[in-house]
Structure formats: C-alpha cells, structure tokens
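Subject: for your reference before the review

Hello V.,

The reviewers asked for a structural picture of the protein, and I figured it would be easier to keep everything in one thread rather than splitting it across files. Below is the amino acid sequence we used in the manuscript, unchanged from the supplementary table.
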Amino acid sequence: MSATENFNSKITIYVIVCWILAASGGLMFGYDIGISGGVTAMDDFLIEFFPKVHERKLHAKENNYCKYDNQYLQLFTSSLYLAAIFASFVASKVCTKFGRKPTILVASSFFLAGAALSAGAKKIWMLIVGRILLGMGVGFGNEAVPLFLSEIAPVKYRGAVNILFQLLVTVGILIANIVNYLTSMVHPYGWRISLGLAGVPACILFIGSIVITETPTSLIERGKDVAGKKILKQIRGVEDVDAEFEQIKFASDIASQVKHPFKELMKLSSMPQLIISVMLQVFQQFTGINAIMFYSPVLFQTVGFKNDASLLSAVITGIVNVLSTLVSIVLVDKAGRRKLLLQACVQMFISQVIIGAILQSQLQTTGSLGKTSAILVVVFVCVFVMAFAWSWGPLGWLIPSEIFPLETRTAGFAFAVSSNMFFTFLIAQVFLSMLCHMRAGIFFFFAAWILFMGFFALFLLPETKNVPIDVMLERVWKQHRIWRRFMVDADEGNKNSGANVA
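And here is what came back from the structure prediction:
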C-alpha cells in the first residue's frame, strides 16, 4: 500500500455540508428528467400546446404504441439535452479558468431562469427556450459537480462521495414523480406548478454555490498554492496535509505545461480514458433507462394504467431508484466498480427481455394488458431500475470524473458530459417514435446493447477502486493488459508522477 492511500483526513461537518450542497446539482438534473415525462402525459398541458396529440390520445381505438408520437412533444423533452452538449464544453473552459465553484453558480443561475420561463410559458417557443436554459444549467452543473466531488473527497471515500450526485439525481426524479402525481389533479394549470417547482432545487444549488469552498486542486492549478493548502487543511480536518498537497502540486505542475488540453486528449496515451468515458455515456443511455424514466407515465398508460395510476407507478419506480442508489454508496468502495457493473448487466438484460416478451405476446395496438401482466411489467421495470441505480447510473459519472490526469480532466470530462447529453437527447427525441414503429421490439433492442456493454466492462474496463486520482496513469493504465499499449507517447513528467507519489 502506498503513502497516497494513507493521507491524513477526518470527516468534518463543513466538508459534509459542501458535499451535499454541491451534489444538489444532481437534484436539479433529476427533477428535470422526472418532470417532463409526467407533464407530457397531462391532458391540460397537451390541450394547451399539443392539441393534435391530445386528440389522438382520446381516439376510441388508439394505437397503444403511437399515441404520443409527436416530434414537437419530443423536442420539449430533448431540447434540454441538446443545449447541455454545447454548454458542457463552455463549462470546461470556465471550470479550468475560474474554478469549480463559479461554474456551479452559473449553473444555478441558468436553472432559475429556465424554471421561470417554462412555468410561465404561453407559446411553444417559450417552453423550448425555457428547456434550453435548463439545458445550459445541466451542462454547467454536470461538468462541475462530479469533478468537485471527486477532487474534494478523501481517496477511500471518493466513490461514495461522488455517488451523492447520482443519489440526488434519483431523489430529484422521485420528487418530480410525486409532484406530477399531485399536480395532475390541479386543473388547468397543474403542469405550470410542476415546471415552476424546478426553481426550488435551483435555489438550493444557488445558495450552495455561495457556501461551498473551491477545491484545493482547482486553486493550486490556478497558481493559488497558499489558498489551496489552507482549504486542503480545512476540508481534511487536519494540519498535516503535506503529502497530499505535494501530490496535487506535482500534478498541477505537469498540467501547467499543457496549453491545449483538447489537443492533448487526441494523443494516443489519452485514448483509453477518452474511449471509456464516452462509451460509458453511450452505454448508460442505451440501457434504456432514460427512455423508462422520461416516459414511465406514458409507458404505464400504454400497458393499460389510467393517467393517475401511471403516475403513481412512476413514483414507485422512483422510490426503487433512490433506495438502490444507496446500495451503490455502500458497496462501490468495497466491491469495486467492475463487479457492480457486471452484475447489473445480467439483471438488466433479463428484465428487458421479460418486459419485451410480455408486451410482444400480449399487448396489441389497441386495448390494454390484463391486470396481472401490467403488474408484471411494473415489477420488472423496478427490477431493471434497481440494477441500473447501483451500477451504470452512478458509475457512469464517477468513473470519468476520476480517471483523467489533471491536465486533461475538465476537457475529458466535458467529452463525457456532452456524450451523455447527446445520447440522452437522441433517446429522448426518438424513443416515442421507436416505440411506435418497433413496438415491443424496442426492449429487445436495449437488451442487445446491455449484452454488448457487459463484454466491454469485462474486458476493457479497469478497476479504479482505492487508487488516488492523480496516480491513475501509473497504477491503472500502464498495468492494464490492453490499454498499456496506448501509453507509449505519455510524456516523461507523467511517467515519473507515479514513481514520485507511489
């Protein structure tokens, strides 16, 4: 065991407050994910903005798989993620130049503006612009918050602390589902309440961005060594932080030699981290999770639940999501990342196949499932959500935030965030159309992706449990039987960093 794993630290009240307040960015993101699916299932919302969809929904012999297929309706949901793609790259620059804390402040400001415009919308364009502002907030928040948490956490708790972000994403989704269930009974403006309440987590994040500290890594990276060491002592709760300070300082010195981090990312030695970070985002979305979380009220209506019952079913999946993420917090630094990912692939694959088989055999284009079959669908949706919530959900954010060296960390993580947003956008924009045309086959489509990603995790994903964030190159990538072949052009400074701190 190296000295890097024995850095002195205590868990202080202040650092716990910083973790929770920063992670509230996840609460905002989760609320946005959860709220849109419920709002698009509300009749008052459809009558106001999408009357054709409402008419189709009311048809006596409606097509179960196609009644919500409308590109503008899908654009309402997915425009947020398109904006976040652009915002994440801007946020990367802001993160590097000004720090993690100001980037989180900008995110909360976008969230507040977007929530206000969405709730007060009179025209479709106002809805879309509101969603775009929220998307800017997501891009800034999802870039800065996981980096903040990984950099401020002690090594042995890094996984658990980072997963606080995903935990609050799941809490946000659950709160959104409960809000939608309650506001669906408030006519005709219940949907406005749902969208407007996004201002509450936005306010929490805004206040949090003022209260939290900057990370020592960001301060030292920007040449503020004295302030960085002072904050390091504050968040570790001890005076003796010299070893950790020197490790961060050494990584910062290397980083300062890299003037063009995005160009640095294109080097062969950066490919393993970049490939894994991007593929984790692709896989996270192609599990089908956001299709289920966005549209769970619509999905449950499709299999035969009435509007309020479908929203209630979505609340149930939200509770499962939160509780299962707690499992990940407990196990991630004990069992490790790979075991959680591989176990979940088996569970998610079985769930998607069973859901697809039930719908394929029993749900026709009109009518609905029998009560027993509909309940089975809800059960296996919950089994699926359970597996995702302790694996690909939180680890899709954790792993990219911890594997890049400091010189490419914000740039590399920007690629991860933008990839996540692009594929989230893609799934949000096409899922209802895919459901319409592929019908139950869409669940087999996602199952095939789950099988593929299981093999990827088995052969190409290294374990990063308990490895200090600034010595990943030496201890992880140079030891991996496949990725070590990519390390031939790693610069001499990076080659020596592991030896100096190990």
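For the response letter, the relevant points are probably these. DSSP finds 23 helices and no strands in the chain. The two ends are 9 Å apart (CA to CA).

Happy to draft the paragraph if you're swamped.

O.
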